[in-house]
Amino acid sequence: MPNKRVFKKLTGAKNYRPWSQWDEGDYVMGKLIEKIEEDRYGKPNYVLELEEGHFGNKEAAKKLVIGKDFVLNSATLLDNVMEKVEIGSVVRVEYLGREIMTKGAYKGKEAINLDIGVADADEDSAYMKKIDEDSDDL
């Protein structure tokens, strides 16, 4: 009789959606399981084990599978917040659209606007702690 083996998942299909295809109000929520330092474009990416999500586009919504990996592509606001987030934390990211930068080196350029929240993985709360770029309380 063959021995029973238990395999730990090391790889699997990852789902992602380019920011250009997100609609206002689309969101994903899940446990942060990996931070990819550099993708093939030299940008960071973030892998969530999906717990919840909503896309207004029906075809995109079909690809949101609870328990599967979902990759968030780099965006300046997301990158700044994710630097402070630990692996295992639950992250919720909602797309709020794009806005024109009003100051700084990129004044006049379009930027992705997101609503980002984070909670401890063992925290069983529907409410997420809002994180802003200057927060030191992570």
Largest sheet report? 7 strands, mixed
Shape label? globular
Spans of at least 5 consecutive residues whose pLDDT stays below 50 are: 125-138
User: What pattern of helices and strands is seen along the backbone?
Assistant: EEEHEHEEE
**How many domains make up the coordinates?**
1
Number of strands: 7
Quaternary assembly: single chain
| Helix-strand category | mainly beta
> What is the averaged pLDDT score?
84
Q: How large a portion of the residues is in β-strands, by DSSP E?
A: 35-45%
By CATH, the topology is OB fold (Dihydrolipoamide Acetyltransferase, E2P)
Fraction in helix: under 10%
Distance between the termini: 51 Å
- The helix count comes to 2
Radius of gyration: 16 Å
CATH architecture: Beta Barrel
- The CATH top-level class label: Mainly Beta
Task: Give, in spatial order, the strands making up the sheet with the most strands.
Answer: 1-4-3-2-5-6-7
Describe the structure.
With 138 residues, this protein is mainly β. It has a single domain (23-130), classed as Beta Barrel (OB fold (Dihydrolipoamide Acetyltransferase, E2P)), CATH 2.40.50. It has two helices and seven strands. The protein has helices at 58-62, 76-82; strands at 14-16, 27-36, 45-54, 69-72, 90-100, 110-119, 129-130. Strands 1-4-3-2-5-6-7 form a seven-stranded mixed β-sheet, with helices on one face. The longest helix has 7 residues, at 76-82. The protein is globular and about 65 Å long. The model is unreliable at 125-138 (pLDDT under 50).
